[in-house]
Design goal:
single chain; Neutral Protease, domain 2; five-stranded mixed sheet; seven-stranded mixed sheet; disordered N terminus; 27 helices; alpha+beta; 878 residues
Length: 878
């Protein structure tokens, strides 16, 4: 009763003040598992935002010093049991009730070293522990919590019962953003750091991996192997990780740092392809950043049906299994960028961590930019700029309507922050800083930023302050327009040569909407002119809505370039004459200029433009420009342009360029395309390019197409790439004749598919059978998977029943309409809505009978009318 009163008082008087700084309730769709999540959260731990709009880091009731996890997973029951021990000290006030984040944990017992536990209470989102006497400020205590759980998030199983190969059995954990609370009680927010210790008990033939240093192993009283890991330097709670199971290992070393790469046995033959760059990446980062790798080791582990591309747990990155690739894909598939991105996080995200998710770009923007820097280091500056160009044109400059800045705390859930703003736009902010400060000063600033804030949490202003201190420059305007306000500048640029005055006139107009949300930008850049082969640069500052710049030159320039070093994130409209474009696309010193020229030439419907693009496609020294030329020819769209692509594809030695050349010609709907597809499939050996051609078959109905697709449905390939491509093509054709062969492939080879790809197969199957008179076989097949333990498969099967259009599936779908998993319930209710729109189809016999009855009725009406006329005639004759 004492605890109940004290708990109620906390709710009434404490929560409105403290909880207002916490994040709002989490729905199942908000969990970080971006694709195959089996987890769901019912309420955001750490309380509520009362207005539900803005999110900040929560108050820290105590300083967590150490977390010890001692757990035993049950691979058969897919459960976990163990003890969490948390050592902490109160910060500002004595603690009588300790609050921990905990979801769906079965608390068995609680005890405490340094204080007496009075009672505890568990809600759907947290665990509250009451002490007999308040623990005073500064006094160290350790709570030990015995618990068990069948986690729906945070800790995931991959077992034979779930459809995975027995040889690949494993468990893995995911913390970001707030999943840790699903498998152990904790303070689950990135503004808290502690050392951690993980002890895991597994069968003797399994491997156990976790953060930090492996301290040893032994056989416990139950005959299980007990492995202990210790992470001595403090790190954020979401970076705690455990992986255990059947794993094979590759080993390397950089200096005295052991590098381990672990993968499931079925993937191991190809593992060496994916992680050959890791030592070189680490060496480059140490040189570029100026801070040594800050941890004792670095492991990378693949996960079957992982929820994202990768996760940068401290000293141990977890990765999607399909980062493993076959050498047959040449340079089209690579793990290098993912490897570099996740390794960069060991400095940016782990060593220094964003204080709350509104400043996520301090994690993800840095990791993205340093990936580009490594590309530039390995392949030259053009590779760095090409990565930035692709990010800008493909991911950032298309977001004209988005009103959210990089730093934004008005999100509904933290996962909204994991978008283009935090990744490529954050990367571009760093590139602009590096360009304005100069490489040497930029490096000094980043080194000082890391050293000053090592093993702490940071906000964007911490970075700004370091730059100001070392550069002497006020950075408020820069951060205000690029970090704290949304969007980017739109620039309309016009050039005019004034021969009498010997002046080049360049007019720059900012055309973005300027209002309280979107600022008028101010930034330095330069104009470049090439006159008689000589490069002339003119530095300018853009600061007005519209401004004219005049540059004296000895003669009319052949090339005029804005921002030639590519230092400003902006959408630029700058039209050029044909002569200028020819000079620009032939300038071997300006890769970005050649890319821009390709884009402009695509809209010039002339023979000369096709000739220029053909020459570029076949001769340009940089593969990215050759790809741009191929895309420009496809966009040009003329028969002449397609003839160039068809003529050149087979001679392209670079597989990336070959892919860019093949893709538009096999996708073109033309009489000769099926023959071209057949030629590609006959001669091309790269499975990534074959897959593009197979998918293109989906545009052409023919016996030859059916034979080809049946062939590739049955063709084994690494990660089932060719079979999945055939399924994609079948989905486009929408021909029920493919129903039986597709169902047979899914039946016989289920274990070979990822959850996502098998789900695609189920969806395609439903689509094919939708127009069939008899849907019973397909309905029965789909229904078999509605309780599948792989959530990606389960969700796909439920959704597919809706697409099938069979009202007899309603009873099955209604069983999932009220599921506590919102992802499942939403899918089920959507499917029910689809079926309710379908009018029941009458049997053919009934339809025919109705037609006959209607005809008889019409005939009867005619006879009645005729009899009536005869009757009238007889009466008239009387």
């Amino acid at each position: 009763m004492i605890f109940a009163k004290r708990f109620f008082a906390t709710l009434v008087f404490f929560c409105p003040i403290v909880w207002a700084s916490y994040t709002s309730p989490v729905q199942a769709s908000e969990i970080i598992c971006r694709y195959c999540a089996e987890g769901r959260a019912h309420a955001m731990p750490l309380g509520l935002d009362l207005d539900g709009r803005y999110h900040y880091a929560p108050d820290r009731q105590v300083d967590v010093l150490h977390i010890k996890l001692d757990v035993t997973p049950d691979f058969d029951k897919r459960t976990v049991a163990g003890t969490t021990s948390i050592t902490a000290t109160p910060i500002a006030e004595a603690v009588d009730i300790l609050r921990l984040d905990a979801i769906d944990l079965d608390i068995k017992a609680i005890r405490c070293d340094g204080a007496k536990v009075l009672d505890h209470i568990s809600s759907r989102s947290d665990l509250r522990i009451a002490f007999a006497e308040p623990i005073p400020v500064g006094q160290k205590f350790t709570v030990h919590i015995d618990y068990a759980a069948q986690p729906l998030a945070g800790l995931y199983f991959r077992t034979p019962e779930m459809g995975y190969p027995a040889t690949d059995t494993h468990i893995w954990t995911q913390g970001e953003t707030h999943e840790a609370r699903h498998w152990f009680p904790c303070f689950d927010y990135p503004n808290e750091r502690s050392s951690t210790e993980v002890i895991c008990h597994v069968p003797k033939d399994m491997t156990v991996l976790s953060n930090g240093q492996r301290m040893g192993e032994e056989i416990d009283a139950d005959g299980l192997k007990s492995v202990r890991w210790l992470q001595e330097k403090p790190h954020a709670n979401y970076l705690i990780c455990l992986v255990a199971g059947h794993l094979e290992k590759l080993e390397k070393q950089y200096r005295d740092i052991p590098l381990g790469f672990y993968t499931q046995p079925s993937l191991f033959p190809h593992a060496a392809n994916s992680f050959r760059d890791t030592p070189q990446i680490m060496e480059f980062y140490e040189q570029e950043i100026g801070v040594d790798y800050p941890w004792v080791k670095y492991d990378q582990v693949t996960i079957r049906d992982f929820s994202a591309g990768g996760m940068e747990n401290t000293t141990m990155t977890t990765l999607m299994h399909n980062t493993i690739f076959s050498e047959a894909t040449e340079n089209i598939r690579s793990s290098r960028s993912l490897d570099a991105h996740e390794l960069a996080h060991q400095w940016f995200g782990d060593y220094v961590t964003c204080k709350d998710w509104s400043h996520l770009w301090l994690n993800e923007g840095f990791a993205t930019y340093y990936t580009h820097l490594y590309e530039g280091h390995k392949y030259g500056r053009d590779a760095l700029l090409y990565g930035l160009y692709r990010d800008a044109t493909g991911r950032i400059l298309t977001q004209d309507k988005d009103k959210k800045p990089i730093v934004y705390n008005g999100y509904k859930n933290a996962m909204e922050q994991f978008d283009y703003r935090s990744y490529p736009k954050g990367s571009w902010v760093l590139h602009m800083l590096r360009s304005q400060l100069g490489e040497d000063l930029y490096r000094q600033c980043i080194k000082a930023y890391l050293e000053k804030h090592a093993l702490t949490s940071v906000v964007s202003d911490d970075l700004r302050q370091v730059i100001e201190d070392l550069s002497g420059r006020p950075m408020d305007r820069f951060f205000d327009q690029w970090v704290y306000h949304p969007r980017h500048p739109d620039l309309d640029i016009r050039y005019k040569w004034m021969p009498k005055q010997g002046l080049a006139k360049v007019t720059i107009k900012q055309t973005q909407p300027i209002n309280d949300d979107v600022l008028l930008y101010r930034f330095p850049t330069r104009l470049r002119f090439v006159v008689d082969g000589k490069v002339i640069d003119h530095n300018i500052e853009v600061s007005k809505v519209e401004e004219d710049f005049y540059v004296p030159l000895d003669a009319q320039p052949t090339i005029v370039r804005f921002d030639p070093e590519y230092t400003v994130l902006a959408k630029v409209k700058f039209d050029k004459s044909n002569e200028q474009l020819k000079a620009q696309i032939e300038n071997q010193d300006d890769m970005i200029g050649r890319l821009l020229a390709c884009d402009l030439l695509a809209s010039r419907k002339t023979h000369a433009s096709v000739e220029l693009l053909e020459k570029t496609l076949n001769e340009d020294p940089f593969y990215g420009v050759r790809i741009a030329a191929a895309k420009a020819l496809a966009k040009h769209g003329s028969d002449e342009a397609y003839a160039v692509l068809k003529k050149s594809w087979a001679s392209q030695q670079d597989a990336k360029v070959r892919l860019a050349t093949v893709e538009p010609i096999v996708k073109r709907y033309h009489d000769d395309t099926p023959e071209l597809i057949a030629d590609v499939l006959e001669t091309e050996k790269n499975p990534a390019i074959q897959a593009v051609a197979i998918r293109a078959l989906g545009r052409f109905q023919s016996d030859a197409t059916r034979q080809q697709l049946q062939r590739f449905l049955d063709t084994p390939s690494f990660n089932n790439e060719l079979t999945v491509a055939a399924i994609n093509a079948i989905g486009q054709l929408n021909d029920p004749a493919y129903t039986a062969p597709l169902m047979q492939v899914l039946e016989q080879r289920q274990a070979e598919f990822s959850a996502r790809d098998f789900g695609t197969g189920l969806t395609t199957l439903a689509q094919l059978a939708k127009l069939a008179d008899d849907k019973q076989a397909v309905r029965g097949f789909l229904t078999r998977f509605v309780n599948h333990p792989q959530q990606g498969v389960q969700t796909a099967s439920i959704g597919a029943l809706g697409k099938l259009g069979d009202p007899q599936a309603l009873s099955v779908l209604k069983a999932f309409a009220d599921s506590s998993d919102s992802r499942i319930s939403k899918t089920a209710n959507t499917a029910i809505g689809q079926l309710n729109e379908v009018k029941p189809t009458a049997p053919k016999e009934l339809i025919e009978l109705r037609k006959n009855l209607q005809a008889m009725k019409q005939e009867s009406e005619k006879l009645e009318k005729k009899l009536d006329e005869i009757q009238k005639q007889l009466e008239a004759q009387k």
